[in-house]
Amino acid sequence: xxxxxxxxxxxxxxxxxxxxxxxxxxxxxxxxxxxxxxxxxxxxxxxxxxxxxxxxxxxxxxxxxxxxxxxxxxxxx
Length: 77
Fold this sequence. Notes:
By secondary structure, the protein is an alpha+beta fold. The protein has one domain. The protein is built from 2 helices and 5 strands. It has a 5-stranded antiparallel beta sheet. The two termini are 14 Å apart. 13% of the residues are buried. The mean pLDDT is 80.
């Protein structure tokens, strides 16, 4: 279940600004993965730009799996 879309407005409530979300979890992410939706369980949907900048894939980031292995915490949608 999706809870909140990330905002590109820096004046948005702290927890919803896309750069704040990214900064909070970037140490648990592989490069070129960027959040855009929070899920109620703490997981997120991400744009996956690893294969190119034109058409990102969408992946589910499982925060528990990512804590063990960054790459295995990503699941294609």
